[in-house]
Design goal:
This protein is an alpha/beta fold. The chain folds into two domains: about 140 residues, no CATH class; about 120 residues, Cobalamin-binding domain (Rossmann fold, 3-Layer(aba) Sandwich), CATH 3.40.50. It is built from 13 helices and five strands. It has a five-stranded parallel beta sheet with strand order 2-1-3-4-5, sandwiched between helices.
């Protein structure tokens, strides 16, 4: 999908802090309209708090409403959507510090805010509100935040000696890697040993499984991947290691295709990695909160 000239002007305005930034803030908030507005207080003049960031006037006191761990605060989420369209890291670093000071846990940043910001960027692209380049760059910055800004989950939560080992993979030519990184971080916080494989050919994924070091394969697939190719990979895994290694398929393909499990031959098709582990009969060493709830 190609954005129109006005869309590109809006995106440029967001980067430069002009009227386009206001429009983008409004769209980021509107794309989450299904969320309860309770955590975000509306000023008397009717302007949403997220809009003030365009003029650089947002401070820790201008995003009102209580912050609840495990729930998304729409004001902070809107500001994150704007910050990732700024060229330098300063706004993102400052916002993360402010969110932490407001009581938002690291886990919520990784599991809730970053994935939801990516989802809304994608929605803005689908609606011709942002160009492909802006969405790609914004998503890459979210991925960098997950990798570089947030604490290393393995450093804080070393793998349990008695826990399972999981291979989390995104296949070659599938460029949607953020979800796999979020999944890997969530599993590591639960004490699972994780190997993350991004962009490798199917043959390399199978070779990793054939070494016998992994108890499950979690495949993150986007809607650009056909079910036929996924079924072929599942069949190759079965030929190599039999059913000793369960295959779980997740990712945005679950939103665009129905009955993915039956159509691919996978053991499971679901988005909750911890529940997938349990259904595969694998022990979760530590309880790690993983539910996503917006605005409640």
């Amino acid at each position: 999908m190609i954005a129109s000239g006005s869309d590109r002007a809006y995106a440029a305005g967001a980067r430069n802090g002009g009227h386009g930034g206001r429009a983008l803030a409004e769209r980021i908030v509107a794309s989450g309209a299904q969320a309860d507005a309770g955590p975000v207080a509306q000023p008397a003049n009717g302007q949403h708090p997220a809009l003030a960031v365009v003029n650089g006037s947002v401070n820790s006191g201008s995003v009102n409403g209580a912050v609840h761990p495990g729930r998304i605060h729409e004001g902070f989420l809107a500001r994150l959507g704007l910050a990732i369209l700024q060229p330098g890291p300063e706004d993102r670093l400052a916002l993360v510090a402010e969110m932490r000071a407001a009581g938002i846990p690291w886990e919520d940043l990784a599991d809730l805010y970053i994935p939801e910001a990516a989802r809304r960027l994608g929605a803005l692209w689908c609606e011709d509100e942002l160009g492909f380049a802006d969405v790609t760059i914004g998503t890459a910055r979210l991925q960098a935040m997950l990798r570089d800004t947030l604490p290393d989950p393995e450093a804080r939560h070393p793998p349990s000696a008695c826990g399972p080992s999981v291979l989390v993979a995104v296949r070659r030519d599938d460029y949607h890697t953020l979800g796999a990184m979020v999944t890997a971080a969530r599993l590591r916080r639960a004490g699972v040993s994780v190997r993350l494989s991004l962009g490798q050919p199917d043959a390399d994924i199978i070779r990793l499984l054939a070494r016998g070091a992994h108890d499950a394969l979690f495949l993150s697939a986007s809607c650009s991947r056909t079910l036929d190719s996924l079924r072929e990979l599942v069949e190759k895994v079965r030929q190599s290691v039999g059913r000793a290694v369960p295959v779980v398929i997740g990712g945005t393909i679950l939103l665009s295709e129905g009955d993915v499990r039956a159509r691919t031959g996978a053991d499971l098709a679901m988005s909750d990695p911890l529940e997938a582990l349990r259904l595969c009969g694998l022990r979760v060493p530590r309880q790690a909160w993983s539910a996503v709830e917006i605005g409640r």
